[in-house]
Amino acid sequence: MIPATETAPVPARNGPQGEISGKAGALNTQKLDEMQQELGPSFLNVIERFQAGLLTRPEKIRQAILANDSDQVAVESHSLKSVCRQIGLYRMGEMAATLESIGYSGQLEGANLLVEQLMQAGRSAHHELAKYCR
Amino acid sequence: MAHIMVVDDDELIRVFLASLLRHVGYSVTEAENGQTCLQKIKTCAVDLVITDIFMPEMDGFYLLTELHRASPDSRMIAISGGYKSVTSQLTLQMAKAFGAIDTIAKPFKTAMVIQQVAKALQMANNQTEPGEAS
Q: Structure pTM?
């Protein structure tokens, strides 16, 4: 058996963890507040990197889809999924997970629409995160 | 001050983890894959290695094996979110077989990481003869 390692739970859509219902790019403010406390002065540096990644990583997925490179779609989506889940963007993480599965399947039909939604969510989250960078 | 090597190919996760550990008071060196970790370890001794498993160039399984071969007392914690159809649970179970003393599933809870790191370092100290502690 693996020793107890705790995984952050996916909150309910109207969950108690500060996530706003209905918006994939909505921030989990409680999670971010915790990060701010845990990282101290490094928080700004970390969050700015995350913020940039919310624009660049979906774009990389889009580029991979355009190139019909399903392996790369899976790799980039896996990476984005991991980051989103870590900072509490659970629904964006779910979208990335779906794209990851699509990438592994090798059938990219439908990926275009999903990546556009993902990019929109990323822009929204990027905008919201700017409040933490002031 | 204990020195920890954080190995992860995902810059965002690596920087987040490293920043967290630095804020707690540890000295941290970062590496983007197993190969870089082994190179850096030649010139700086570390008390603990925290490594991702699925990475390009040299993955975590190989790194765990190499570190264990070089020094059977090496303290290593494996971290993973799984990959493709391989779950994080299975990946981390395998990592223990490769010599990891503890495991962390992604997404991780920061408090849990800090607790596990402290425990791993404590185990290392307990195994160090009096007078040998750094």
A: 0.82
Asked if A38 and B13 come within 8 Å (Cβ–Cβ), the reply is no
pLDDT (tens digit per residue) in A6-25:
333 434 333 434 343 456 66
Contacts of B70 (CB under 8 A, 6+ apart): none
In this complex, is the C-beta atom of B42 within 8 Å of any C-beta atom belonging to chain A?
A: no
The mean pLDDT of B20-25, rounded to a whole number, is 94
Q: Which residue of B has its CA nearest to A34?
A: B110
Q: Which residues of A touch B20 (CB under 8 A)?
A: 38-39, 42
Report how far apart, in Å, the C-alpha atoms of B131 and of each of B26, B27, B48, B91, B121 are: 21, 22, 20, 37, 17
Residue, of B129 and B101, whose pLDDT is higher: B101
Residue of chain A whose Cα is closest to the Cα of B16 = A46
Other CB atoms within a 10 A radius of the CB of residue B56 amount to 11
